[in-house]
Amino acid sequence: MLYLAFLIGFILNGVARADRVQVAVASNFSGALDSISKNFEKETGHQVVITAGATGKFYAQIKAGAPFEVFLSADTSTPMKLEEEGLAVPGTRFTYAIGRLVLWSSKPHFVDREGTILKAGNFDHLSIANPKTAPYGAAAMEILKKKGLDVRLGPKLVQGENIAQAHQFVVSGNAQLGFVALSQVYRDGRLTSGSAWFIPDSEYNPIRQDAVILKNGENNAAARALLEYLQGPSAIEVMAALGYRH
Amino acid sequence: MLTAEDISALALTFKLAITVTVILMFLGIPFAWWLSRTRCRWKGGVEALIALPLFLPPSVLGFYLLVAMGPSGPIGYLTQRLGIGYLPFTFGGLVVASIIYSMPFVVQPLQSTFIGIPPRLLEAASTLRATPLDVFLSVVLPLSKSGLITAAVLGFAHTVGEFGIVLMIGGNIPGLTRLASVQIYDHVEALEYAQAHWLSGILVAFSFSVLLALYTLNHDRRGLWGRD
What is the largest CA-CA distance in chain A? Predict the structure, then answer.
C-alpha cells in the first residue's frame, strides 16, 4: 500500500514537473503576475513558481546558474545583456508591460493634478527609487531634471533601494510624497488612497519592461505558454487595471 | 579604484561605527553590570528584549523602526515634541537604529565577563573600604579588559556591516546616510562589479584585521589568566 502511494506520488510529481515554470519577476510586477498566473494555471493546468526581486540581483543570480526559466525584468537592458551573453533564448524577448510613474502622497489634497507642488517645494522629503539601479528612479530623476528642479530638490531626495521601498517611505509618512509606480497606488481605474499627479507619458521615457526565456527554460512548453499568455487579452486586462500600459 | 562617493561612504561608515560603539559602551557597561548582579524578576524579560533584534530580519526591523520613528509612530511623536524633529533620513536616526541593532553584541559579552568575576574579590575590596564605584573602576573594569575589548570590537564591526536597517532608515542620501555597505550594494545592483570589489575588498581587509587583533589580544589575555 505504502509502495503504491509512493509510486503514485512519484508519477504525479513527474507530471507536475513537466508543466512547471520557474519565473523571476521584477518586484514592481509581482502583484500583477500573481493574478495573471492564477488565471493562467486555471486555464492551462501549468504551474507557475514565482520569485520576486530586484532586476540587478536576478542578473547576478542567473549568471551564477540560478534555475529560473523565465525572466520578467524591470528594464530592457538586462534581458538584452543576458541574451548577448548566451544566457537567454534569442528571439523570445519582448516588452510585456510599460510601467507608469506617479507623484503620490498618502495625504488627500496634498499633491495637485499638475504636480506644481514640486516647484513650490513645501515638503521635507521627496522619495524616489534609486535612479542608478531602478528604472522608476531613473524616470523620476529625468522628470526633475526636465523641470530644472533636480539640484534644488537634491537635499530633499530620499532613495529607496527599489520602488517598493520608495513607496514605504511615503506610506509611513516619513516622506510627504514620492515618485512611485502607478501599480502600487492604483486599482480598477482609480487611486486607492491619497492624492497624485498622473504624469503625462511625454514627460519621461517609457519604462519598458522586457521578458525573456532563459536557457534553463528553452525546452519548457509552459515557459513559452506563459509568455504567450502575457500578451493575451486576459493578462492585458489585469495589467490595465493596475495602471500598466501594454 | 575608489570614487569620491565611495570614500565619503567609507568615512561616514566609520563615523557612525565609532559614535555607536562609544555610546553603546557607555550604556552597555552599567547595564550589563546590573544584569550580571541583579536578582530582579524582570531580568529575563530585559535580556530577551535586548536579544530581540537578533530574531528579526534587518530590513523588517528597519521597517518597524521607520514606522515608529515617523510622524505616526510613538518615537516620532516623542522626538517631535522634544523639538528634535523626525529621525528617519538623518545621521541621528542611523545612530539610534544602529544602537538598537548592535546592542546584544555589546551587552552579552560584557554580561558574561562580569558574571565571571568572583564575588569574593568584590567583597575583599569592600572590606578595604572601597566605595562601590571604586570597586567597579579599580577591580571590575581592569579584570574585564578582554570582555570590554570583545564587546567594543563586536559592536563596531556589526555596525560597519549593517545594511538592511540603515538602508531603510537612512534613505540612501549621499554624504549624509549613504554608508559603505549601501554603496557596495548599489554598485552590485548597477552591475559595476569592479567598484563593488574594491569597496568590499577594503571592508573585508578591515574586518579581518580587526578580528585578528581581537583574537590575538584574547590569546594573550588567556595566558595571563592562566597564571592567576
Answer: 76
Domain that holds residue B27: 11-172
* Bridge partner list, A25: A52, A72
Report how many domains make up chain B.
1
Q: Which candidate from B67, B171, B186 shows the least CB-CB separation from A132?
A: B186
Q: Using 50, 70 and 90 to split pLDDT, how confident is the model at A175?
A: very high
Backbone φ and ψ for B117, nearest 5 degrees, come out as -80, 120
Q: How far is it, in rounded angstroms, from Cα A135 to Cα A47?
A: 29
Residue B205 falls inside a structural domain: no
Residue A156 vs residue A189, higher pLDDT: A156
In CATH, what is the architecture of A2-98+208-241? 3-Layer(aba) Sandwich (3.40)
What are A58-110's pLDDT values in tens digits? Answer: 998 998 888 999 999 999 999 999 999 999 999 999 999 999 999 999 999 99
Interface residue ranges in chain B relative to chain A, Cβ cutoff 8 Å: 63, 66-67, 69-73, 86, 88-89, 167-168, 171-173, 185-186, 188-191
For B188, the closest of A56, A125, A173 (CB atoms) is A56
Dihedral pair phi/psi, residue A209, rounded to 5°: -115, 120
Indicate the average pLDDT of chain B.
89
In a domain, B3, yes or no: no
Give yes or no for a contact between A202 and A101, defined as CB atoms under 8 angstroms apart. Answer: no
Has domain A101-198 been given CATH number 3.40.190.10? Answer: yes
